[in-house]
Amino acid sequence: MPPSEFELADRDIRQRDLIPPARLARCHAIVIGVGAIGRQVALQLAATGVPAMTLFDPDTVGVENLAVQGFWEQNLGAAKVDAVANVCHQQCPRLELHTVPRRFRRSDVRDRPANRDIDVAVFSCVDSIESRKLIWEAVKNRAAFFADGRMAAEVIRVLVSGFPSNDRLYAATLFTAGEAYVGSCTAKSTLYAASIAAGLMIGQLARWLRGLEVVPDQTLNLLAAELTVGEIP
Questions:
Q1: What is the pLDDT of residues 102-140, one digit of tens each?
Q2: Domain for residue 2, yes or no?
Q3: Total domain count for the chain?
Q4: Is residue 92 a contact partner of residue 47, using CB atoms and an 8 Å limit?
Q5: What is each CA distance from 42 to 51, 80, 83, 151, in whole angstroms?
Q6: Which of 13, 97, 132, 148 is the most exposed place for a label (fewest CB within 10 A)?
Q7: How does residue 180 score in pLDDT terms, banded at 50, 70 and 90?
């Protein structure tokens, strides 16, 4: 017999001082890209209890995604958004979940009806500067919170804005594609690094929900055991 609503009322009791339920209840999370980092972000959001979430990704699960992105063998050939959505619903069956099995478009936010009772939290988990630019330009005036997770081998960078429409720092990180790190495709991601990146992103969401200033720029080099933190403006 499934548990009753009364029995589930305290599912978040051990996080309430860190993640205020009333603020979380206003959130609609948009996760763009559900590969290595994005899948972990979505699963953590679902477990945390975010009430609504939209997932964007055009890809299907391939065998090369099993180790580094955490997909299961039975997911092979399935749309990544559907595979992630299935696990998210197991985490939190009451989650309002929308899946979009294609690339994010500017119109996906522009055409969304404005709702002052909902805080849109955008998590950019894509792997190209061009995609990040498109996402940022589309959402910066509509999102209440924005996080961008980047990963190259064992180097993680998390960029966050708690007031995107007034942000002047993030755009400076959108360097040209030619300046981006180029590494072997067999050494650009691991599940453990992706999980840490997702945790840093959700940790900043928790700070924002509590009304604290977010840390706009964090870089963690796991191999060197070095954490570099940008100054809070």
A1: 999 999 987 666 777 899 999 999 999 999 999 999 999
A2: no
A3: 1
A4: yes
A5: 12, 12, 11, 17
A6: 13
A7: very low
| Alpha helices, DSSP H, located in the chain | 5-8, 21-24, 36-48, 65-69, 80-91, 107-110, 129-139, 191-209
Q: Quick count: other Cβ atoms within 10 Å of Cβ 194?
A: 24
DSSP state of 228: E
Neighbours of 156 (CB within 10 A): 24
What pTM does this model have?
Answer: 0.93
Asked if the structure places residue 150 within a domain, the reply is: yes
Residue with tokens 């522009």: 110
Domain-embedded: residue 14: no
List b or e across 204-220, with b for residues whose CB sees 16 or more CB atoms inside 10 angstroms: bbbbbbeeeebbbbbeb
For residue 16, the one-letter residue type is R
Q: Which domain holds residue 82?
A: 20-229
CATH of the domain at 154: 3.40.50.720
